[in-house]
Design brief:
Two copies of one chain form a homodimer. In chain A, helix 2 packs across helix 3 and helix 4 runs antiparallel to helix 5. Chain A is α/β, with parallel strands linked by helices and 399 residues long. In chain A, the strands form three sheets. Chain A has an eight-stranded mixed β-sheet, with helices on both faces. Chain A has a two-stranded antiparallel ribbon with strand order 2-3. Chain A has eleven helices and twelve strands. At the A-B interface, helix 4, helix 5, helix 6, helix 7 and helix 8 of A face helix 4, helix 5, helix 6, helix 7 and helix 8 of B.
C-alpha cells in the first residue's frame, strides 16, 4: 500500500476559537434591537455586535482616526498577539510606533467584519432568538453591509470624520465602498490590491472554495457544530486553492521551484515530495485552526456580489461624483488576483469624478500577498500619502 | 434555512466506465509477463495492456504513422464517439478527412496512457496477481513510463519510425519525451501548450486537486471501489480547480463576466447565482462520470515529476543533442498554465542542440484550452508543418 500523507486531524484551537466568537478578548460594541443593521438582503439584523481593536490615541479634535478594513481571512488583530494562534498581528509591518500607520500619530481602529468569526456577529455566533448557533440561518451579507456596520461602530466611538480608511484586498473593497457611501466622513482613503467588483475568475476561485467546504460531509449542511463535526478537510482544500492565488508564479518559483522536501530523489508516492506541496498542506491545516467554515462561505460570497458601479447604472465614476476624499490606489505588478488593470479602472473612474487620486504600481514578484509582506516601497508610499493627507488635515500640529 | 445547491449525486456512467477499464471497446495490445514495462520507480509491470484507436490507413512503406498523445484527462477516443459519455471525440477538429491531421493521408494512432482508466492498465484495472483492483497498490508512473509503453505498442503495430508525434499539455510532454528517448524513431514532432518540466505553480494546482480527492471520505485510502463508494465530490472539486487553470481570465470574462444565471437579481444565497458558478459545477459533475479518481492522482503526479533536463544534469539541450527530428512548438498568448516562456525555453534548448525547430505563439484569449478549441491559426500551422514534414518524408507520393 502506498504511503499517503494528508491533512492532520481535527483543529487544535477549536475551543479558543469558539470562545472568541461570542466572547472575544477584544472590546465589543453591542447594538440592541433598537439599532438594527439594515442588510442589503432586506433583513434587519438585531441585536448584533462588532469586536474591534484600537491602537494609539484619539486626539482632542478627533481628527486622527484611521479605520483599517481587514481582508477575507483577516480580523481585528492588526498589531497585537492573536488570541487563537498566538502569532503576531497580521499588519505589524504597517501599524505601530514609527510605522507607516504610526500609532504615535494616529488613532487606529480595526474591527472584525460582520459575518466574521472573531467576535463580530456571524454564522458562528449564537442567534439570540433561538439560543442556537446561526449557521446558514444567518442572512447573507455584502461588502456595503460590512461597511454600514463599521460606520455604526465609528458613531459609537464618537468619531464624525475618519482621517483615513485603509485596506487591502477585501479590505480595499470596503475602503472604496466606505468612501462611496460616506464621502463626507472620509478625509482620505488608501485602497490596496483591490477592485470595485469581483472578476469572473475570482468568482470561480471562490466558488471552488465553497464547493470544497460543502463537499466535506462534515460540513453537514452548515450545521457541523451541532454534530461535533468540523469540515476542516474541505476548508483546508479551499484555503490551499486561495493561497495559490495569493502568490505569483514567480514567487512560487523563487520560494520553492521544483525543490524536494528533505530529500533529493522522488519517493514515487503521494507524499509531499516537493516543498511547494508541503507548504500548501501547512497553509491549509493551519488556517482551519482559526477560521469558521461558514464564515468563509459568507465572506467569499460578499466579495463575489461586490460591484460598486451596479448601484450607479454601471457607471463607476457616478459612485464617486464630486467626492472630496483624497485617494491613493496601489497595485502590485505580480498580483494576478487583483491585477493593475483593476486599479487603473478605479483611478480612471476617480479621475472622471474629478477626485484627487494618486496611483502607484509597485514592482514585486510577491503576488497579491505583497500587501501583507515586507515591501519597503509600499511602506514608503503609504507613509508619504498619510503624511501629505495629514498636513492637509492639520495633523502635524496634533502631535 | 438557506437553500444550498451543490454537486449532483453518484456518477451516472459508473457501470460503463468500469467496463471500459478492463474490457474496453477499443482494440487492446496485451503484453505478457515476458514483456514487462520497466517503470522509473524500479518496478517491472507485467502483464499490462494498452488500449488504442487508429484512424486512416498505414501506407505500404509504413511511413505515414502519427502518434497522438492525449492530455491529463483525455483518452484514445480522439475522433470517434466516446463509449462512456456518448460525446464526440476530443480532437475531432484536428483529426479526420481533410483536417490538419488528415486521415486520408496519415495513419493516426492514439492510445490511453498507462495509469489511465479507459482500457490501458492503471489503478482502476484488476491486478492479475490478486484478482482485486490495483488502487494505490499500482506503482507510480512517470511521463517516460507512458512513452515507453507506447513505444512497445508502436513495435507491436510494426512501425519502426513515426512520421510525427503530436500532443498538447501532458500530450506535448510525452511528444517531447518521445523524441528525446527515441530520436531515431520520430521524424517530426508537434508539441503544443506544454513544457519540459512542471512549474511550482502547476505542481501546487495538482497538489490541490489531489488533496481534494483524498479529503473526500469516500476516497477511503484509494480503495473506494471495495466499499461501493465513489469520491465524486472530491474529484469534482479537483476538476473545478483544474478547469479554472485551463481558461484565461479574459475567456472567463468574455464567456460569463458577472452575468447571473437565469435571473437578474442576486438570490442572497449560496445558489449558483453567477453563470460562471453554474458552469464550473457542471464541469465538476460531468467529469466524475467518466474518470477514475485514483487515475487522476497518478497522472497528475506523473506530470509533476516530469523534468527532461533532470536526466541530463539540468541541461535541457543535452536531451536533444544532434537530434534529426523536425520540431514545431506552439503556445497560446493567454495560456497561463503553460505560458509562452515555457515554449521559448524548449525552442532555445532545441536551437542549442542544433535541432530543426519552428515556433508559433498564437494570439487568442482562450487560455490553455485553446489547443482543444476552434482556433483556425493553430489548425493552419499544424497543417502546414505536417505538409512540409511530409514532403521531406516523401509522403506526397504516398497518397
Amino acid at each position: 500500500m502506498m504511503n499517503v500523507q494528508s491533512f492532520p486531524g481535527a483543529a487544535l484551537h477549536s475551543e479558543e476559537r469558539a470562545r472568541e466568537v461570542d466572547h472575544p478578548s477584544s472590546p465589543v460594541a453591542r447594538f440592541g434591537v433598537d439599532q438594527p443593521l439594515r442588510l442589503d438582503c432586506g433583513v434587519d439584523l438585531a441585536p448584533f455586535q462588532i469586536a474591534y481593536q484600537t491602537y494609539g490615541r484619539l486626539n482632542a479634535d478627533r481628527s486622527n482616526a484611521i479605520l483599517i478594513f481587514h481582508a477575507l481571512t483577516g480580523d481585528q488583530h492588526v498589531a497585537n498577539i492573536h488570541p487563537v494562534t498566538g502569532k503576531a498581528g497580521w499588519w505589524e509591518t504597517m501599524v505601530g510606533p514609527g510605522r507607516p500607520l504610526d500609532t504615535d500619530r494616529y488613532f487606529i481602529i480595526c474591527s472584525n467584519v460582520i459575518g466574521g468569526c472573531m467576535g463580530s456577529t456571524g454564522p458562528a455566533s449564537t442567534n439570540p432568538a433561538t439560543g442556537k448557533l446561526w449557521g446558514l440561518d444567518f442572512p447573507l451579507i455584502t461588502i456595503p453591509d460590512m461597511v454600514r456596520a463599521q460606520a455604526m461602530l465609528i458613531d459609537r466611538l464618537g468619531i464624525e470624520t475618519l482621517f483615513c480608511v485603509v485596506g487591502g484586498s477585501m479590505g480595499g473593497m470596503q475602503a472604496l465602498q466606505c468612501t462611496a457611501a460616506y464621502p463626507d466622513r472620509v478625509f482620505s482613503a488608501l485602497a490596496v490590491a483591490c477592485s470595485t467588483r469581483h472578476s469572473a475568475q475570482n468568482i470561480a476561485f471562490h466558488e471552488l472554495g465553497r464547493q470544497a467546504v460543502m463537499a466535506d460531509p462534515d460540513w453537514r449542511g452548515g450545521r457541523y457544530f451541532e454534530h461535533g463535526a468540523d469540515p476542516h478537510r474541505g476548508l483546508g482544500v479551499a484555503r490551499m486553492a486561495a493561497h495559490i492565488t495569493y502568490l505569483s508564479d514567480a514567487a512560487l518559483h523563487r520560494k520553492f521551484g521544483r525543490r524536494m522536501q528533505d530529500r533529493d530523489l522522488p519517493t514515487f508516492s503521494f507524499d509531499a515530495d516537493f516543498q511547494v506541496e508541503s507548504y500548501l498542506r501547512y497553509q491549509g491545516s493551519s488556517f482551519v485552526e482559526r477560521f469558521d467554515a461558514n464564515s468563509y462561505l459568507y465572506l467569499t460570497r460578499a466579495m463575489d456580489y461586490f460591484d460598486i458601479a451596479a448601484d450607479h447604472k454601471g457607471v463607476l465614476a457616478e459612485a464617486f461624483r464630486d467626492i472630496k476624499t483624497r485617494f491613493c490606489v496601489v497595485s502590485f505588478t505580480s498580483d494576478w488576483l487583483f491585477p493593475t488593470a483593476e486599479a487603473r479602472a478605479i483611478v480612471h473612474a476617480l479621475n472622471a469624478s474629478s477626485a484627487r487620486v494618486s496611483f502607484a504600481e509597485i514592482e514585486t514578484d510577491k503576488g497579491h500577498d505583497a500587501f501583507l509582506l515586507d515591501v519597503p516601497e509600499f511602506f514608503e508610499i503609504s507613509r508619504a500619502f498619510l503624511h501629505s493627507a495629514g498636513l492637509a488635515r492639520g495633523l502635524s500640529r496634533a502631535r
